[in-house]
Amino acid sequence: MDGKNVLRKIGLLLSVAACGALVTSCGDDETPTPTPTSSDTATPTPTPTAAVDFSLTADFSATSFNANYVFAFFTPDGGGTEVFNGGTRLDGTSSITFVASPDSASFVFPDLTDPVEFGATDFVSVTATERQYAAGDMALTLFLPFDNVMRVSYEIDNQTFTQDTVDGILRSQRVAIFFNNVTTTDEITTTLSYTGPVDVFGGDPGVTEAGTLSAANPTFTVTPGATSSDDDTVSGTIEVFEDVMGTPTLVAVLDLDATVTASGVFEGTGSDAANDLDIGFVGTLAGDNREEIFILFAARDVDVAGDPDDGDDTVFVGSFIGN
Question: Which residue stretches of the chain have pLDDT < 70?
Fold first, then answer.
């Protein structure tokens, strides 16, 4: 499978596994504005790009297709607790361009009409893994934990918004993942293990407080098939905790298990019966020799046909990057 088809596969799977699993939050009044693309919108055909030398201090430019998600938090007028408002993923093209001198960063996202531009006066800080900009109510963060996968987050604060009948302020965030494809055609012959950070947001809209979710760094394992004709598999578990009055409380256990294609792509669905969640995920190995991995995941409260609405609309969205 070539790079173009790898990217298209990821886009198609994300549409089904992620947005399909979040159908109640696609396009309703609790979703970050502008309204995300719904799951029944055709996925655009992507075009591959050349390998990127990702950096937080040197020039680079990258494009990704259909590897995006959005989420938002709401604060009622007059003050009060900021709570989770909604989340989903988006089809479409994103890009990030960084120029070291003069310092500038430009970000393109599917639901933004124009590129977002940050300059030298907007620069905030840079560390070994993160570069940040801020301008007024906007902020941009480039996160590069390793070498082949970058997560870019764009935040807009102080957006006028009405949650149901309550007026307030929305703080929304748009996230895009950029990565290098696997180029090796060698078979996987030994177990590969990947550990890294999880980016997770969500909860019950209007109820779960902002900043209360966390997840420890999980390890995902790619296991080669017993023979060359057997499937390689990827497996691992993401545990999501919510801080409830100072006590970390387990609210989601995302057991992910799928077949890995020759090009490194995988996808799957599952469930967390203990927490009444349906799960969808998609990802790929990344880097010339499969040095890294990323996974986009989504989980939502199970709606049981014939049962009364339990009032729980819990949604979790996020990503994992490991090496």
Answer: 1-50, 304-311
